Amino acid sequence: ALLPTDNDVKTVPLEKRVEHTFTHFHLILEVVKEKAGDSMIEGLWVKPSELHLHALHTLMKKVAKKAMES
Question: ∠33-38-44 over CA atoms, to 5°?
């Protein structure tokens, strides 16, 4: 699969936050959506319905869930 390069990415704030507590600190992430143009680089893309098939850290599962909320 392909990922966008920096030149073709338009970032759209979603006004959503994800909070996660690690052993020694608390992290707050702002979730954004990126719209890519035609210039792409290699990477891995999966369908939202297939995320459970991949070894994602709990934090990344929280981010994906929040990003998919309407």
Answer: 60
